[in-house]
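Ticket #4471: structure output looks truncated?

Reporter: J.K.
Steps to reproduce: submitted the chain below (311 residues) through the standard prediction queue, then opened the result file.
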Amino acid sequence: MSGHEGEERDEGEERDAGEVEAVGRFRERTGLPGLVDVHTHFMPERVLKKVWAYFDAAGPLIGREWPISYRREEDERVALLRAFGARAYTSMLYPHKPGMAEWLNGWAAAFAARTPDCLRTATLFPEDGVEAYVREAVEGGARIFKSHLQVGAYDPNDERLDRVWGLLAEAAVPVVMHCGSGPAPGKYTGPEPVGRLLARHPGLRLIVAHLGMPEYVDFLDLAERYAEVRLDTTMAFTDFSEAFAPFPREARARLADLGDRILLGTDFPNIPYPYIHQLEALERLGLGDAWLRAVCYENGARLFGIADRGL
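Returned output as attached by the reporter:
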């Protein structure tokens, strides 16, 4: 290791220590026993590097500079989440074409097996055989699924997925779905396709990623209509997102009313700011410590049975 590399590593370790301390102070002042983060990304290395390259190039779905704050080796990222106090987190991964999902599910199963505090995650794509590999993942212990309508460019109402949604609803396995039109709209993003899906599968445990950014109000409407719909906070209320998709101030009271169905999500490691900023952005909403405890820990712990029987 060169002297320059050593200095960079020392600076990185000092920065990490400062962030861990800041997150610890947040947890202490709000009375949090830990964090449950339902929207973190772990993927096969070659897939993650392609994702990072896309962010680095400010690809068309991003359209702006987006530096990756936690470009680290896998074990370093896991260690940092644990140091932040994350008692449970996910390996959100997703295919952009047919033939990827089943392979990604195999990787995620192996990752969860060697990383027991990670909730075993799976994904899907509208393709022949999707019902079989989703059923296999559920029966194998998958605890949460990821559906990315923007990147996958598919309609959640594709007939090949209809039995899959029914299977997941019956099994009570939550699905984190990127269905909002931020940071750029897709052919099947927005509340309308999701509304049609929920009309057929009202019991689906759907977690709307990014609070449905920028269609926040429309997705709050769906959460109020369907008891199993939840929303994650990923990137919402941060300075970065408020600059292009501000959350309407008049809707803040609805966040309080739905406080038992909002879950912490961060997008770690693919965020352009420190992890603590997401937590402080939630805190500055002024909805109180009880709301923060519910969002950052209790709701997720209840959903995944963490408080009762551990991981």
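Triage note (M.O.): checked the attachment and the full token line is present. The two ends are 38 Å apart (CA to CA).
Status: closed, working as intended.
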